[in-house]
Amino acid sequence: MKAGTGLFSALALFLLLGAVLTQTPRPKKPTRRPATARRPSVPKPAEPAQPEPQEPTDFPPVILGPPSMYVDCPLECSCSPSYPNALNCENRNIRNIPVIPPRTRYLYLQNNYISEVTAEPFINATEIRWVNLANNRIHRIDKNVFEKIPLLYLYVQRNNLKVVPAGLPASLEQLRLGRNRISKIPAGSFSRLGNLTLLDLYHNQLSDSDMGKNTFKDLKGLVQLNLAHNILKKMPAGIPSSLIQLFLDKNRIDDVPKDYFDGFTHLAFVRLNYNQLSDKGLPKTVFNITSLLDLQLSHNQLTSVPLFNGHLEHLHLDHNSIESINGTQICPYSLEADPSDHSMLPRLRYLRLDGNHLSPPIPLDVIMCFRHLHSIVI
């Protein structure tokens, strides 16, 4: 019995060992992903170089106007029955001036892409009084385009003109040519413009050599002349004595001739801000002008207050190099004048002195002299 039990135990142990030895081990899971073969990179074909955009290909499309009851109204313009004499073509992305109807008196073409002004569109437009061509890309105005038109106002500022247009009509009253590239005023450009009251040549490239002594002599009715923001070194010659407003800011002027303003009986406003004026370049009584009301000499190189007439009401001397102010010296009248006699009191109301080498308080003699002074900035 014991022998049978032992035989059975030995057999069971043999079978168990056989099962263990014949069992195949499980493969372990890899800790890293197997490397995959990289595909060979295929070079992309080179894109063709894009040419630089050239005008006028970059212009936006023309904007057509609303339907109109007028059969002669250009498609790219607006013709209102409330204003039958006005042709509104502004802000339409126009490249060329359309044919102008004969009934037109007021023509608005500002804020477009017009590059040339030719005579053809104006053949039947014989009654135009007002033309606004501001903020275009005009580089040429054909000669005599407006010669036979009774034009009063011509606005061509913010364009690319290099020369003052020729053949302007004698009827013209206002000519605005600011913010162009004008560097030449041909002889006789203004010879027929005796009715002109306003000439704006602001922000161009005019120098002393571009303006002769007779450039402005025929402008007998001129009231305002704006030559600011050019490259002038001298005061312009031959300015008509009818002038009321003279603007010469942002030039390079360093001298005003002693007798420059002789004969000016109406001159009321003179602006010479942002120039290179010093005491040496200003004769003692150069601004003793009876008609002068507003004198601006800001942003120059002055070290003292220039003398001025008792009729002056506004004086701008800020941002110079003034270190002191003596009311007794600059007072146009005697400090002992009767204060009840208003005709003997200076009319100065506004005085600006900030940006100098001055500090409060305001000298007493200044207050005693300028008794109409309402505001002083120091």
From TrEMBL:
Residues 26-36 have a biased composition (Basic residues). InterPro entries: Leu-rich_rpt, Leu-rich_rpt_typical-subtyp, LRR_dom_sf, LRRNT, SLRP. Residues 72-106 form the LRRNT domain. SMART domains: LRR_TYP (SM00369), LRRNT (SM00013). It comes from the Eukaryota. Gene3D superfamilies: Ribonuclease Inhibitor (3.80.10.10). This is Prolargin. GO terms for cellular component: extracellular space. It comes from Dissostichus eleginoides (Patagonian toothfish). The keyword Signal applies. Residues 1-22 form the signal peptide. Transmembrane segments: none annotated. Pfam families: LRR_8. Residues 42-54 have a biased composition (Pro residues). Keywords: Glycoprotein, Leucine-rich repeat, Repeat, Signal. Residues 24-61 are annotated as: Disordered.
